[in-house]
Structure formats: structure tokens, C-alpha cells
Write a structure and sequence with these properties.
Shape: globular
Number of domains: 3
Radius of gyration: 24 Å
InterPro entries: A-D-PHexomutase_a/b/a-I, A-D-PHexomutase_a/b/a-I/II/III, A-D-PHexomutase_a/b/a-II, A-D-PHexomutase_a/b/a-III, A-D-PHexomutase_C_sf, A-D-PHexomutase_CS, Alpha-D-phosphohexomutase_SF, PGM
Number of helices: 19
CATH architecture of the largest domain: 3-Layer(aba) Sandwich
Largest sheet: 7 strands, mixed
Helix content: 25-40%
Strand order of the largest sheet: 2-6-5-3-4-9-8
Structural class: alpha/beta
Bound molecules: 6-O-phosphono-alpha-D-glucopyranose, zinc ion
Organism: Scleroderma citrinum Foug A
GO molecular function: magnesium ion binding; phosphoglucomutase activity
GO biological process, one term: carbohydrate metabolic process
Subcellular location: Cytoplasm
CATH superfamily of the largest domain: Alpha-D-Glucose-1,6-Bisphosphate, subunit A, domain 3
Distance between the termini: 58 Å
CATH class of the largest domain: Alpha Beta
Length: 565
């Protein structure tokens, strides 16, 4: 049966270079004539499309259903044999990673701009993942970019749109399209990983003293969270909110941090809820926030690593190694050292963990940017982290049945053994590139001339003295493929082990965004009072000194950061 393939002439667009997480632009840009078509054809020109199986899904944001139909038309014309599509074009990023792996697909096209706002006047994104379920490495994204620069035509078949709301299999031109339940495979995966009976029992017995609230922020995780927390773990309907995915996320900014997830923070504070959690638009980020306790992502991954053996997946398979991105606090390193595990420090970006996982050297990892995950898939995983916390709390309470252990108690217990890495991030969003360059230049000079080494800086507000050991620029050599990534951030290291790191964001859309990461370690011997201080208080002196040394406020013309996390 011949299906006519039509070739449509087109011209290249500038700037279709995939960033850290695919191509992200305003919806209006993707709607330009042939813009989306060009990029999809460029992806297919850069992979072996003939005979391939591709997964398609995304966070359900505005412009997703149309784009799925475009991918089907172009994909089929390019010889894709089979498409596995999430119902209603929905698959969270972790669910898509799982589906690619589970069904042994050759890759996947994810329609998401993560935590960026959605809707006709906001952002859309297209991201390509490879057969291990992880984001395409740079050699693939470079190929795609090159293809966008010379594209002259794209291919389509003539076919009626596929009904994305009907689960099942249909023939589509020369291809097969399978619409799958977006949630089912993912729920099965988490059930294999965690001790659901233990969690359910704990939640049931402590229904009044340990209340749970999950906020989907109208992103993609709502249906997943409902299926897991309400249907499988027996929590009441009131334990989830904002769980209907909306194409514009209800007008919100679906990013789980204290600033943007205020719908969660307000209800947790008002109702004294013991365990609150949220995830971002596409479901790969997470925040854990309870009554009087916020868990920094750096502490979160360290605690999950410390308690790994109560999680059946790790009990069975063992923990191979631990890792964090460079700016993430060193809390997880201390766990690795105590347990005798190999640990890695990689540049910012989840893709750096994939090689280590594929080589069997990494099990649990995390980033300060609210990303936590493991080698069960090749993306970070918001709900995985949230259920990991519930599993750990259930186990901790089984060990100590007489006094309820909540988030705060677990944190304090951790600090009393390992000490505490006070950690905070200051974001200076959309500053002038000129100002940002001045800051980078000042630090590069200090690196080149060692002029700041061995200088001591006094904090007037706290009376502390901070002596600089070194100033360095971070580069990473991948231990598996030997590739080198340089200039991944500048580090001022103090001789008490404190660090201040500076990086330019790789995900911003206008101007430059400077991030300053501040970390100060306090050993367990300092005692409870020091360990339990408020973060801002614990870091006050160090921040004062770092701002003065770098002249940051002067260069960036900002007295205050835009966001503090
Ligand atoms: C995305 C990536 C993360 C990374 C973050 C960094 O979310 O998936 O792995 O940590 O971007 O963003 P930045 O704006 O700091 O470059
Ligand atoms: Zn995301």
C-alpha cells in the first residue's frame, strides 16, 4: 500500500540550537510558519529514523496536541515504524524516560519547557531523549542544530489526525501509533522501587498526626500523584491539590520552590501540615516542605542516600555510587565517605549523571536546583523523591514507634551525625551581560594571579573571619568517555571548608542570570544550637564577605537578589 510522501520546501530559521534541556522558545515562535516542522525534521535527519520506535509525550502545555500531530505526520514520512504516545499527549519527563527504557524505544520527543510558564503568550519546548531514556548528549544536539541551519525541505504524509484520547493501537499511513495510559507504567515502576505496604501502614496509623499535602501546581504530575498517593497509598482526596494539568498551568509558574510554590506553602503553614511536597510543570523537580521544616535539595539527596537500605530497590540492587552537581552542597559526600561509596562531582545538568549510571557506577544523585533521582531512569524524578521521603519516614517511625519522627526530626538526626552544610542560592535574574562579565573577569583575574589566596575577610555583622584558600574554575573530565567540560563555574574556597560558587545560568531567556551559591559546613561537635540555626542566620557572615570581595552588587547594579532559595 503506497502512502504518498510529500516534500514541502522550507528555509532555515536562526537560533534553533537546543539548550540544556532542548529547544525552548515562546509559543508564538514555534507557531511561525514551518518553525516547528523544521526542528522536527532536523531531529529526524540526525537520528536513524527509518524503522525506529519513538515515544512522544510532554507536560500537556499549550501547543502540545498540535505538535504531536505534526510529529506523527513528519515522523511517519521519514520512516518511523512505531510511535508510542501518552494519552492526550501527556507523559511526565520521568514517565517518558521510563517508557523509552521499558519498551526499548530508540528515543523520544518530549514536549515541555519544564517549569517555565505556559499558554499562548508563554513558553513551549521540544526536547529529544535517546535510547537510554536520558536527554540527548551534545554530539546529538549539535547534529540537530547543524541540520536546522541547512534545511531545505521536510517530508509529510497525508493522514487524518489521530485521536489522542483513545487508548489503543491504530495504523497511521505506513506506521503504527500506540496511545498508552500516561500513568500506569510509572505507577508500576514506583511500586517496584518503594515499600508501598510500609508507607501505607504508616500513613494510615498516623492519619491525624502526619498529614500529607501534594501540590501539582497544575502541571503534569497531578494524575500521577493522585494515582500514587490517593489510589495506592490510601490518602484522602484532600491530600492532593491543583492536580488537574492545565495548558497554562492555571496562569502560575510551575516551579517547586518557596517563591513560586506559594499555593503549597500557604496551606502547609496555615494548617500545620507535617509533610508538604510539590513538583514542577513536567514532573522532574521536587520540593519537600513541612510545618516548620524546609528541606534543601542538597540535604534531601544526602538523606535519601543515607537511608537507601530501607528502600527495596537499593536493598536489592545495592548502592553503586553517589553524585551531585558542583554547586550542590557537599552533604552527600559525607554520606559517601562514611559508607565507603564512590562519589562524583559533575557540572550542572542532569545529562552528566547518565554516563555514570550506564556504566554501573552511580545509583543516587541530586542537584541544588530541586532535582533528585536515581538510576531507575535517566531523568531526575519529582515523585520518586517525594515517595522516597515517605518511605524513609515510614521506616524511621517503625524504628522509633513512641515518638513521631517528622521532617524536622529526621533533618536534626542527620545533622547530629554528619554535621550540617548550610546552603543557599541567590539568583540575580536578567542583569546586564556587561555587569555579569565584569564579575566573571574579576574572578578570572583572581584565579590567574592568585591575588585573593591567603587573604582574610572580616564580617562586621557576625564578627567572623574568613580566610580564602583558593579561587578556581571548575572543569570536569567525564570518567567514562573522557570528554572535558570547562568553565563550569568559579569557586571561592575558604580554609574552613566554606565555599561560594558563581555561575551564569544556562536556562535563562533574557539578559544574563547570575547565581551565587553559598555553603558553610558546621560539624556535629558545634552542638544543637549551632546546627539548628536558621539558614539565613548561619550564612550571614559568609554572604557579607562574598558580596564585598566580588563587588557583585556594584557590577550587577542590584542590592538584592531576585530569588533566594
Ligand atoms: C535544568 C536542568 C538541571 C539543571 C538546571 C540548571 O533544570 O535539567 O539539571 O540543574 O537546568 O539551570 P541553570 O539555569 O542554573 O543553568
Ligand atoms: Zn522540569
Amino acid at each position: 500500500m503506497g502512502h504518498q510522501v510529500k516534500e514541502i520546501p522550507t528555509k532555515p530559521y536562526d537560533g534553533q540550537k537546543p539548550g540544556t534541556s532542548g529547544l525552548r522558545k515562546r509559543v508564538k515562535v514555534f507557531q511561525l510558519e514551518n518553525y516547528t516542522e523544521n526542528f522536527i525534521q532536523a531531529i529526524l535527519d540526525s537520528i536513524k529514523a527509518e524503522g525506529a520506535t519513538l515515544v512522544i509525550g510532554g507536560d500537556g502545555r499549550y501547543f502540545s496536541p498540535e505538535t504531536v500531530q505534526t510529529i506523527l505526520k513528519i515522523g511517519s514520512a521519514n520512516g518511523v515504524k512505531r510511535f508510542i504516545v501518552g494519552k492526550d499527549s501527556i507523559l511526565s519527563t520521568p514517565a517518558a524516560s521510563n517508557v523509552i527504557r521499558k519498551y526499548k524505544a530508540d528515543g523520544g520527543i518530549l514536549l515541555t519547557a519544564s517549569h517555565n510558564p505556559g499558554g499562548p503568550n508563554n513558553d513551549f519546548g521540544i526536547k529529544y531523549n535517546v535510547s537510554n531514556g536520558g536527554p540527548a548528549p551534545e554530539n546529538v544536539t549539535n547534529k540537530i542544530y547543524e541540520a536546522t541551519k541547512t534545511i531545505q525541505r521536510y517530508k509529510v504524509i497525508e493522514a487524518d489526525p489521530v485521536d489522542l484520547s483513545e487508548i489503543g493501537e491504530t495504523t497511521y499511513g505506513p506506521s503504527q501509533v500506540q496511545i498508552i495510559d500516561s500513568v500506569k507504567d510509572y505507577v508500576e515502576l514506583l511500586q517496584e522501587i518503594f515499600d508501598f505496604p510500609l508507607i501505607e501502614d504508616f500513613l494510615h496509623k498516623n492519619a491525624h498526626s502526619f498529614r500529607v499535602l501534594f501540590d501539582g501546581l497544575h502541571g503534569v504530575t497531578g494524575p500521577y500523584a493522585r494515582a500514587i498517593l490517593v489510589e495506592k497509598l490510601g490518602l484522602p482526596e484532600g491530600a492532593v491539590q491543583n492536580c488537574v494539568p492545565l495548558p497554562d498551568f492555571g496562569g502560575g509558574h510551575p516551579d517547586p520552590n518557596l517563591t513560586y510554590a506559594h499555593s503549597l506553602v500557604e496551606v502547609v503553614d496555615e494548617n500545620n501540615i507535617q509533610f508538604g511536597a510539590a513538583s514542577d510543570g513536567d514532573g522532574d523537580r521536587n520540593m519537600i516542605y513541612g510545618k516548620d521544616a524546609f528541606v534543601t535539595p542538597s540535604d534531601s539527596v544526602a538523606i535519601i542516600a543515607d537511608w537507601a537500605e530501607v528502600i527495596p530497590y537499593f536493598k536489592k540492587g545495592g548502592v553503586k555510587g553517589l553524585a551531585r552537581s558542583m554547586p550542590t552542597s557537599k552533604a552527600i559526600d559525607l554520606v559517601a565517605k562514611k559508607k565507603g561509596l564512590e562519589h562524583f562531582e559533575v557540572p550542572t545538568g542532569w545529562k552528566f549523571f547518565g554516563n555514570l549510571m550506564d556504566a554501573g557506577r552511580l545509583s543516587i544523585c541530586g542537584e541544588e536546583s530541586f532535582g533528585t533521582g536515581s538510576d531507575h531512569i535517566r531523568e531526575k524524578d519529582g515523585l520518586w523523591a517525594i515517595v522516597a521521603w515517605l518511605n524513609i519516614l515510614a521506616a524511621a517511625n517503625k524504628e522509633s514507634p513512641n515518638k513521631l519522627i517528622g521532617i524536622k526530626e529526621l533533618l536534626n538526626k542527620h545533622y547530629s551525625v554528619y554535621g550540617r552544610s548550610f546552603f543557599s542560592r541567590y539568583d540575580y535574574e536578567e542583569v546586564s551581560s556587561e555587569g555579569a562579565n565584569k564579575l566573571v573577569t574579576l574572578l578570572n583575574e583572581a584565579i590567574k594571579t592568585s591575588s585573593l589566596n591567603n587573604t582574610t575577610h572580616h564580617s562586621k555583622s557576625t564578627g567572623q573571619d574568613y580566610k580564602i584558600g583558593s579561587v578556581t574554575s571548575f572543569s570536569y573530565k567525564d570518567p567514562i568517555d573522557g570528554s572535558v567540560s570547562s568553565n563550569q563555574g568559579q569557586i571561592i574556597l575558604f580554609d574552613d571548608g566554606s565555599r561560594v560558587v558563581f555561575r551564569l545560568s544556562g536556562t535563562g531567556s533574557a539578559g544574563a542570570t547570575v547565581r551565587m551559591y553559598i555553603e558553610r559546613y558546621v560539624a556535629p561537635e558545634a552542638g544543637e544550637k549551632e546546627l539548628n540555626r536558621d539558614t539565613a542566620e548561619g550564612l550571614k557572615g559568609l554572604i557579607e564577605v562574598a558580596l564585598r570581595i566580588t563587588k557583585l552588587q556594584e557590577f550587577l547594579e542590584r542590592d538584592e537578589p531576585t530569588v533566594i532559595t
